[in-house]
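Hi everyone,

Forwarding the result from last night's run.
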Amino acid sequence: MAEESTLKMADAIITDESLAEWRKRIGVTLRIGNVFNTHACQDNIRKFCNGIGDGNPLFRNEAYATKSPYGGIIAPPNFLYSVFPTWVLQGLPGIHGFHAGNDWEFYRPVRLGDDIIPKSVFTGFEEKKSSFAGRMVMEYQDALYYNDKKELFAKAKTWIVRAERKAARTTGKYHKFQLPHPWTEKELAEVEEQVLNEEIRGSKTRYWEDVKIGDKVGPVVIGPFGLTDMIAYCVGSSPIEILAHGLSLQLYRKHPAWGFRDPGTFAMEPIYGVHFNKAAANFAGLPFPYDAGVQRNCWFIRPFVNWMGDDGWLKSTHTEYREFFYFSDVLWFEGEVTKKYFDENGEACVDIKMGARNQRGAETAPGWGTVILPSREKKTWPVKKRLK
């Protein structure tokens, strides 16, 4: 556990007064201080895909993508997370923020040359009690992504747990696992084979009529999760304003609650260091560095896109984060078809239940999504419809 005397991270408590002041912000359009991949160029899309381990050729191989329904490279739907991660850490300084889930609706593809303009609105909060950190708040924001013609690419409803760091350290709720996980060489070999056996449907059209209730979706296997995975994600998505040297010092002098001094190196680090710095994670009440919620949702979306192929369209997803995913852990993203139907627009929809199980058998990210597939019967092609 990090010593409070050496790790100078902001530590605050939630008060009635701070919540009353915060309540005045509800309905406000928030200032987004850090946007990243606002222009969809081939380099940005490739770096993002590298950062989440996505090898789908539709997003990175120009010769392949030219023959697809899109006629060229597009960005995967989760690319929007790299533009803006759906939420702004705002209000309640010194109170930790844990991204806890998203509801997504996707309307149009992001194509090469598109400019993406994000918007964020603070929609409210509610007080809760938790066994992790006692008094806490569930914060809600809406994220919207437009092109320069003010046409909507997608929107996401976001919820964020705001919790007191000291209370989380005191409960020690998550200090019950052996970390790093004690893998054997045989187990690691099996995991790595599963990672490499990821199936991408690609150009082989999946028709609605061929889908059956109970069909399996995935798996996509992630892990063992490590430091380079986290670095690659930050390079491709820059979820915070990553600055160095004098630039970072200027930022922390302006916003003291955004940084801390690492007790091992004496360097100033961002609060985001909980995702790669053990001392920072300990101070927030966690035993080991853990993934970013947005990062896990990027992985969550991958099996839907792999399964539906180039001719399908991801209409919506819902994801909740239930357990932390630590360095050395593995996740198995697996789903199952639960329903198929034609919606009010006559499009051929498939509902899929999705989960993310870790090696301890815990469900870390339950959720679901809806995919629209081509239909032989209706002669509908969801991608062509969205390219008009």
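Residues 16-386 form a domain with the Thiol Ester Dehydrase; Chain A fold (CATH 3.10.129.10).

Cheers,
N.
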